[in-house]
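Slide 14.
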Amino acid sequence: MRALAEFVMAGRLKAALVALLGNFLPLVSPAAVGLVVLRQGLTEGSLVLLWAILPLVILVGSENMNGAMVWASIFSVLVVMIGASALTQTRAWTSALKVMLGASVLSGLAMKLLLATEVSAMREALNEVLRQLQQQNSALIFEPSDLFVAGLLAWVIALTAVAALLLARWWQSLLYNPGGFGVEFHALRFDRLSASLLFAALMGCYLLGQEYVTWGNLLGLPLLLSGIALVHHSVAFAGLGTRWIVVFYMGLVLLLGPLSSVLIGLGFLDSVMDFRSRLAAR
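Slide 15: predicted structure.
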């Protein structure tokens, strides 16, 4: 990974090459854009971004690709660039995450309004999958709406963008500030007002019904990341070693739904009660 980060920072042409070919690998292309923005600014990052989205733009009119997912990939690169710029200016992950969340919400709504045909096609494909599942289990009775699909796309955009920016920041730390990413990530914690607003909006979406569940998942993403940061901090504070982090992520993959809810709750409670300070005091 360090070698790839060094290659990206070796010059604009090499960064553009990674951004172009990185589309064949998860997160590499948007992370390359994010790294350039973090280190060299928004103008240089915008030039690299053009190469990152070039293959995606070519695929927009392809009949073999789902147009909504292609556009979601384009928006995710844009959100990474916006988030990296916000992180550079504010030096605060909480501010960058809030900006990325807002950009992802706008992206999802824009796709619903401007790409209604593509969103409807994705809804029909999703409905077909659910109909097949309902034949096996009659208790599954739910037909997603365009609003549900738009929220799902916004969640995919945000999740991809946040993961790519984390990777870009880690690359930057490897090259220019060894160990700095870990310290920075362990300190990720929202203020009480922001966490309360996010949690209230999340619960409101869940109470409104299944149409809004994907939007609730999107709003819970910053608190989820805060909960993950708290786990990392606690493991490091207790000196338990990286094997416990591996076990944690294995559990997160296997028990994504229940464990995600627990982590969102932890992220919210930490913002209210400040568990990190309590650990330090002990």
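Speaker note: The chain is about 85% helix and 0% strand.
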